[in-house]
Amino acid sequence: MKSHGVVTRVPGKVNLQLSVGPLGSDGFHEVTTVFQAISLFDDVTISEGVSKAGVTISVTGQTAHGVPADASNLAIRAANLMIKEYEIPADLEIKLKKEIPVAGGMAGGSADAAGVIVGLDSFYELGLSRDEMEKIASQIGSDVPFSISGGVAIGTGRGDQITPALAKGSYTWVLALSNQGLSTPAVYQECDRLREGLSIASPQVSEVLMQALRAGDAKALGKALSNDLQAAACSLRPALRLVLDVGIDYGALGGIVSGSGPTVAFLVSDEEHAMDLTVALSASGVVSSIARAVGPAHGARIIESF
Ligand code: ATP
């Protein structure tokens, strides 16, 4: 008998590298990024909804505040796209249980969209390949294909062309969260403003960073972290510089604004180091809240069928 629903668990991410090329004539930037999925997860539950209600959504969990419960939610956009492409029933109930920070540069909305794609593929036994799912995903947002694949991967194009990367080891992160998000388009605009008049090269993956990942060398990885959006995020939110300084002063192996921010991700050597840095950041008063996570984590995957 067909199940009533499925639950898909989806990870947040940090960008170990984010290189941003010049602004293209289409209004977008070509980027080269190295993603790592980390162990902060949203759970996306999908079941058949009430007839003629369309796609409905409810949002709970520790980071539910500020998540739209309407058609602008990326989970609903993903469901509507899947309904159009694969002629599955149009009445669906989606429940999001959120742990990934909202508007924090950790791809929370993208993760939920990925959860819907993988969940619907399983629930309706569509048998989609990874490629087919990633194609649908890239129509919703640049980070959605990576949220499906998880692990460590290089993203090119708009970040949506994913190639898995060879990486050894596991990495411990301390995440300095902000209770006010930053808008991704606003951060890109600020980046363009700061670069005005400069000639910007095409983005390239950092060989030093890839080498650190292949060797499983956390110290070398900490030194190789880079983000072209960091200056723009700090310009819009100067307090982020203080956060970065505190983390580095307290011995983080590296610290970086994640994606378009405002989350700051610190790489540390182990759990004990993570605890010490958590205490130091809390005491500094410059951080709203702190989370710890490890990476790489798995991509979107079904954890329950009921
Ligand atoms: P990225 O790292 O991909 O740029 P982000 O982590 O900075 O994204 P999100 O958490 O995806 O940002 O949210 C950005 C905005 O998208 C939110 O402010 C919210 O209004 C909207 N949004 C739409 N759907 C969702 C969702 N399912 N979860 C969170 N936010 C969502």
UniProtKB/TrEMBL annotation:
GO terms for molecular function: 4-(cytidine 5'-diphospho)-2-C-methyl-D-erythritol kinase activity; ATP binding. It is an enzyme of class 2 (transferase). Belongs to the GHMP kinase family. IspE subfamily. HAMAP family: IspE (MF_00061). Residues 73-151 form the GHMP kinase N-terminal domain. Gene3D superfamilies: 3.30.230.10, GHMP kinase, C-terminal domain. Its EC number is 2.7.1.148. InterPro entries: GHMP_kinase_C_dom, GHMP_kinase_C_sf, GHMP_kinase_N_dom, IspE, Ribosomal_Su5_D2-typ_SF, Ribsml_uS5_D2-typ_fold_subgr. The lineage of its organism: unclassified sequences, metagenomes, ecological metagenomes. GO terms for biological process: terpenoid biosynthetic process. Keywords: ATP-binding, Kinase, Nucleotide-binding, Transferase. The keyword ATP-binding applies. Residues 209-283 form the GHMP kinase C-terminal domain. It holds the Pfam family GHMP_kinases_N. This is 4-(cytidine 5'-diphospho)-2-C-methyl-D-erythritol kinase.
